[in-house]
Design brief:
Elements: E1 5-10, E2 15-28, E3 31-35, E4 42-46, E5 49-55, E6 60-65, E7 68-72, E8 76-81, E9 84-86, H1 92-108, H2 112-129
Length: 130
């Protein structure tokens, strides 16, 4: 279908999503970036945040990721993440559990990079809880 590209979201357990998409906003390490059909090739590390997906049929979905990598070319976007949670499916208990994990990660962080990643995850999760 013209005007779309293949979007795949992969965790260690499974292929979480494999659909044609019109647009995906990805939380890159240097800031959010939007992937559209025909995007220039790029590989980016991801920070904790929300991947906003507009599917080929116009439906939208939001997925919280704790970091990972994105690989883009003109016809594909593959996002590889350790953990992915659909924002719409996250209730207060799930968010509280994820906050507890992020707080523990922050407390046990041994270097600035780990501290920044854990603090970013906490910040994004608190934003979802609002």
């Amino acid at each position: 279908m013209a005007g779309t590209f293949k979007f795949e979201l992969v965790t260690p357990e499974r292929m979480t999503l494999s659909q044609d998409a019109k647009e995906v906003v990805v939380p890159g390490l240097e800031g959010d970036f939007t992937v559209l059909p025909g995007h220039a090739p790029v590989i980016s590390a991801l920070r904790p945040g929300v991947v906003d997906v507009t599917l080929a049929d116009g439906r939208k979905t939001r997925i919280f990721v704790k970091g990972g990598f994105a690989e883009v070319d003109a016809e594909h976007l593959t996002v590889l993440v350790e953990r992915a949670l659909e924002v719409e499916g996250m209730d207060a208990a799930i968010i509280a559990a994820e906050l507890a994990v992020a707080e523990a990660d922050l407390a046990s962080a041994t270097d600035d990079t780990a501290r920044l990643a854990a603090a970013a995850a906490l910040d994004r999760l608190k934003g979802l809880n609002a």
